[in-house]
Fold this sequence. Notes:
It is built from ten helices and 14 strands. It is globular and about 55 Å long. The longest helix is centred in the first third of the chain and has 19 residues, at 22-40. Helix content is 38%, strand content 18%. The model has no long low-confidence stretch (mean pLDDT 96). By secondary structure, it is α/β, with parallel strands linked by helices. The chain has one domain: TIM Barrel (Alpha-Beta Barrel), CATH 3.20.20.70.
Amino acid sequence: MFKQQLRIPSAEEILRQQPLPESLAKIKRERDALCKAVIKGESDKLLVIVGPCSAHDQKPVLEYVKRLGKLNERVKDKLVLVPRVYTNKPRTKGVGYKGMFSQPDPENKEDILKGIHTIRELHLHAIELSGLSAADEMLYPENYAYVEDLLTYVAVGARSSENQMHRLVSSGIELPVGIKNPMSGSIPVLLNSVYAAQSAQVFKYRDWQVQTQGNEYAHAVLRGLVDSYGNDIPNYHYETVMQVYEGYAKSGGEIKNPAVVIDANHSNSGKKFRQQIRIVEEVLQNRAYDGDFKRAVKGFMIESFLEEGCQAHDLVFGKSITDPCLGWADTERLILDIAEKV
């Protein structure tokens, strides 16, 4: 049984109430072009999607993106920095905190309408403060419309990559969409997801039958896998990356823009957040060693916040309340190191 609690306005209504100013829209268009150029191989820069596991409070997230914007000025000739502003991120078991979209205050009950206004306000202020438009995870495809004018990168998680609706909606997005390998780690399933997202589709979306042209910027993200015993198994190593790259080639050009992004946390690190530094270093070494590997790997996802680690409740300013993250000092050093080695 579904008990109706509150009517949520349409995305069109919300966007009229909280529009993206043209001055910020111009920044976003420029950022979109930079990100697309990396995925298409038209730019030698590396994409770095970096930020907290979950954006649970505006103030520390805005402080983080402000610092990232300043750091961007030092590395923009080598890197395209995209802040993670993940506003739909729930806890792993899907019970309790479900992200800012549902709970703008993680210590209080759900308030979705307030959450929608809160995340739009956060994204708008983030662009204004940092000059960087953000990435968010499309956990619920029907929610994407509420932020579609604000993002430069969209992520589809491991638990969603096999879901047909995520694939279909990704086909209509005109931005880079990073699709993570499923929890099983299956490369054929991952490539099928990318193929579906790159293909033209017809389906029902938000009360309409819609047609899409396919999204050539959809690409693979390797995040590690979980075996049948619950063990984390990394898949950022040379062999798996090349297996994905060869899978792209075997499509005979049906899958365009063969790109791989490495998620340095999650099952690749076993959620041991400091391991992200070592993982990034190994991938950079492989890029220096092999030309095909370099052509394949277009960037990284890194979980990072002001303070390292995580906490169960929002007590320490700028510390994750979901997965553990690198602190700012380590993040800054790592990004500067990536820029030096690109």
